[in-house]
Amino acid sequence: MRLEQEQCRSKRVHQERRRAGPVGGESGFACTFWEVLIAVVIVALVFGTIFNGYVIGAKRTQWSGYSLAAQALNVQAMEQARSAVWDIAFSKTEITGMNLMNKTLTTNGPNWIMTGYTTNIMDIPWKGVNYVMATNYITVQTIFENGNSNPWVQLQSIRVDTVWPFDGWGNFSVQTYTNSTLTFIAPDNRDPASLGGTD
Length: 199
Description:
Number of strands: 7
Oligomer: single chain
Low-confidence stretches: none
Radius of gyration: 37 Å
């Protein structure tokens, strides 16, 4: 009985509100056109920002892959130069025989500078002709650490600059980047007599 009275009372209140019409000049609709439009714009901005974040992340990942591939070529050229025999005792300098394009060897007494470059395909996925080339510019020079005093402390400075292109930023222009490595090496000195050995 009490439940029926509550239901009747709530029906009456609902009917009275209907008769009274909208309160405070409110529209009878749930949302106005402007509210819907603003909601759509906000949703579009949110999804646009999320999509743009994924695109920028993908481009940045691609750039990192290119940079790592260029660094691998850089280290490859560096190791090739470092593995050459350089023995002052036997007057043996194999590094001057490196297979470089446009190689120049400038000597000034015991000092010399060798420059040249190599090109190679970067180790990134490619098919057909869409490979990416990188150029290793190599500079090797002798340095006397303590000048010309006796004994000479002679070193070789090996520098490799790997220049590689990247066009993934979307502005229709290719930008070039450079990975550089510089190291110093000492002579091998494989002559036992110069080391005080008896062999």
